[in-house]
Each structure stands twice: as C-alpha cells, then as structure tokens.
Amino acid sequence: MPDDEVSALQEQLSEAREEIERLQTTAADGEARALHFDGLNAELRQQLADAQAEATAHQEKIGALDEQLSTARTDLAAAQADNDGLHARLQAAVGKYRQVLLAAAPEVAEEMVDGGSIEDVDAAMERARQMVLQVRERLESQAQAGRVPVGSPPRAAPDLSALSPIEKIRLGLSGK
Questions:
Q1: Which of 44, 49, 77, 169 has its CA 20 to 30 A from that of 93?
Q2: CA distance 141 to 133
Q3: For position 145, what pLDDT does the model report?
Q4: What pLDDT is attached to residue 13?
C-alpha cells in the first residue's frame, strides 16, 4: 500500500479515535447526567410520596372535621328548634300574665297594656295605672269644682272679729 493511503488511513484512524474519545466523553457525560437525573427523579418521587401521604392525612382530618361540622349543625338545628319552642312558650306565658294583670285591674283598658316580655308588660301596666289615677283625680277635681251645695246656705252670725272697735260701734248703731 502506498504511503499516502497508509497515512490517509492513519489519519482516518486518528480521527476515528478522536471521535470515539469524544463520543465516550459525551456518553460518560450522558451517563453522569442520567445518574444525576435518576437521583433527582428518585428524590422527587420520594417527595411526591411524602406529599401524597400528607394529603391523605389531611383528607382524613378534613373527613373528621366534616363529621364534627355535620354533628354541630344537627345540634344547632335541635337547639334552634328548642329555642323556637321556648320562645313560643314565653310569648304564651307573657300573654297569660297580661290577661291576669288586666283581670286584676278592670279600670285599665286592654289597649294600654302591651309588651313582648314580662318586664315590658309590668312597665306598661304601671304606666296605665298612673294614667288611670291621673284621669280619676282630674275627674274628681272637676266634679268638686262643679258642685253646688244643696239647699240654702247656713245661717250664722257674721264674724265680727276682724272689725275695728269703731266699725263695730257703727255696725251696732246702724241696727244691722
């Protein structure tokens, strides 16, 4: 073989070896990267598994809290129903109390006594009694002012104690 061919082959061989070294370096880098990414992948898988476990734990807590909330809502509805029943009974008792007070004080008009609680009814009853008392006093004072004595006025001697001695003498001499 001629030297040119040998040197061309050697040159090709040298280029091929360089190419092989470059490819081996690239392959080694690729393998190192693959190992690195495999490590990252394993780490991320572990983080994902941990996050899923944590999410499951939170879901269980949410489920327990949902049950507690449902129980609380049921209890609240029952308490609200009890409260409504007690309120209705209170209103009935206030109505009966009002009727008893009105029966005990026939001079007070029903319209004057109103209220949603016993305290309100008591306050309204007190105001009504005061009003009835004031009206009664006014009517009595008007009746007293308009009274005319029955029969003729009483006959009595005039009161001469306020007269001076001279006036008494004049009165005596005048014959009255």
A1: 77
A2: 12
A3: 74
A4: 87
State whether residue 38 is helix, strand or coil. Answer: helix
Would 81 be classed as within a structural domain? yes
* Boundary of a domain, candidates 57, 91, 125: 91
> What's the DSSP call for residue 14?
H
Q: Is residue 7 part of a domain?
A: no
Same domain for 85 and 16, yes or no, is: yes
The Cα angle at residue 139 between residues 133 and 144, in degrees rounded to 5: 125
What pLDDT does residue 126 have?
Answer: 93
What is the four-CA torsion angle of 159, 164, 168, 170, rounded to 10 degrees?
-130
Across the chain, which has 176 residues, the per-10-residue mean pLDDT values are 78 89 92 91 94 95 95 96 94 92 89 90 92 90 74 70 86 77
**CA–CA dist 118, 104 (Å, integer):** 16
Q: b or e along 60-88 (b: 16 or more beta carbons within 10 Å of the residue's beta carbon)?
A: eeeeeeeeeeeeeeeeeeeeeeeeeeeee
- Selection from 114, 107, 115 nearest residue 131 by Cα: 107
Other beta carbons less than 10 A from residue 98's beta carbon: 20
Structural domain span for residue 123? 105-144
Residue 115: inside a domain: yes
pLDDT for res 115: 87
- Residue holding tokens 């308490």? 79
